[in-house]
Amino acid sequence: MIAVLGGLGAAAAWAVSTLCSSRSSRMIEPMSVVAWVMLVGLLICAPLAAASGVPAALSGSAGGWLVLSGAGNVFGLFMAYRALRAGKVALVAPLLSTEGALAALIALLAGERLRAVVAAALALAAVGVCLAAVPAQNPPQNAERTSGESHPEAVAFAMLAALSFGASLYATARAGATLPVAWVVLAARVIGFAVFTLPLAAARRLSVTRDAFPLVVVAGICEVLGFFSYTAASRHGVAVAAVLSSQFAAIAALVAYLLFGERLGRVQLAGVGTVLVAVSLLSGVSA
Prior knowledge:
The protein is mainly α.
């Protein structure tokens, strides 16, 4: 049950982060969005990691998983923010959420065993994600559209992000099995701070506007909360935690429809419904 609750908690946090990033990425450059999100996360995680002390397992194989987890998360976020700048949340978020299916596939290939009913529910969730990713064929005339939108570009960046996130989710679970959660979450923030925040600040290219600032702060906080929740969940089942956490797409797409007027087609609605059925099935089985 912890894998289910933790996965759903991560999904809720990442849905909020995705929505905030979709707006801020259109106000400032995606590189600056990543830089601010990493800085906010670092300010949260560094004191927690320091308080727990340096773990003994850091010098072993867990350290390697930690680096892979952090690097995959940072690169994935950058690609995701570029995708959100080029396309709608209702399109990009479901594509990003295939990260869960990819992480679950890696876990299965690595030897994790699942009951048949759980595997069927995971497959059903993956089908729902794919259906939700199909854009509406005839979008309404009053649907939101930005001149910078590009469907092919959004899809390409989103799939690159999903591949990176999938590897990161699996590596996060492996590192989180032996390392404190604070250290697992800290890894990406340190890498992101070094790769994006410091260079942009040194070059005086770290931009932010008054409207974008609260969005990047909330996104940074929710990214951290999501990873804390996911790491705790993954200790009780990597595949279940990975797929359930990826259901942030269904939440983000629904809220984008309500707040931003991003319309869902019939196929997308069918996908969201399929995802909800899969989540209910997984919850019942785990309970």
